[in-house]
Design goal:
This protein is an alpha/beta fold. Mean pLDDT is 92; it is low at 1-29. The chain has eleven helices and twelve strands. The strands form two sheets. The chain has a seven-stranded mixed beta sheet with strand order 1-2-3-4-5-6-7. It starts with a helix and ends with a helix. It has two domains: 56-263, Metallo-beta-lactamase, Chain A (4-Layer Sandwich), CATH 3.60.15; 279-352, no CATH class.
Amino acid sequence: MSKKTIFAVVAGALVLIVGFLALNIEAETEKRNTANVVSLNPKDANSYRSFAPILEKTKARIPQLDPVTQLYVEEVKPNLFYVTDGIYQSAFLKTGAGVIVFDAPPSFAAKLPEIIKQRAPNEAIKYLVYSHGHADHVGGASAFSDIQGLQVVAPLKVAESIKEEGNPGILPPTKTFQDQHKFSLGGEKVELKSAAFHSEDVDVFIYVPKQKFIMAVDTITPGEAPFMDFGVTADIGEYIKFFDEVLLYDFDIILSGHVSILGNREDVVEAREYVFDVRDTILKAMPTFLERFGTVFETFEYTNDNLAYRSAIESVRGECSAEIIDRWKDRLSVVDVWADSHCEKMILYYIMH
């Protein structure tokens, strides 16, 4: 065999090897990473099409919005009405002596007075209760600004934040409390208790005992994994405690503020299991965190400690999310959308605790 022929064979082999390696590298880069951007290109590995569809059992619970009002209104217990636009939720209670309204999301609050008038034509709105101070849940309260004598109820810290921020859509509270507050109207009682499971100020457990109804906004999303960072909680430690605290109440309906599905006790129990599964998965991995950091930092020749730290976080996060998605993909919708954020939230918490 001539040198020319040998060179051609070797060159051809090298081309094949390089091509094979390139294909494998491309295959590796084409693996979907749920923590990466969501691509609108259906051919990309991170295409929106690669995420799991909403589970059929979740879809079956979604109510149909009225085509005219674009709202869904249901009397879920005698005199207790639930309202949603498919994204946000509110409720109101007829008492025989007036109406109590719970939250006023700006996405549909302007429609609430008419909705209430249709369901309670002979009762004036007497109370508006805030679940917390975030504008996406109470920023439409100005829809009730012309109601004489309206009592707006919220924790003192929420009232102070509302005053400081000056959002014109949020009515300033007229009745404040610190830890607990109870009031009655007609034949109904409402119990309010301060908590810290979500907002940077104060959250409120809103409980109507006669109806076995509780509001704990920005906590769970029935039928789904919680929203990013566990509902963007300001305190994951308090969020973890939330489940045992809320389950002390005697309720069979929970309004959690988002999506169109009204929750029940079983939804809370299932969400608790999910959250604790994420927590326990992270706790098992955290003893290896510093070792992972050290190994990567050595690989980087001790030149970029921040990048090494990020790599260690991503390593634990990736293993955690893979496990969580595998265990929960058939139980809750959108697990693969938010599992990475849930795992990372727990990692950061347990780095410091």
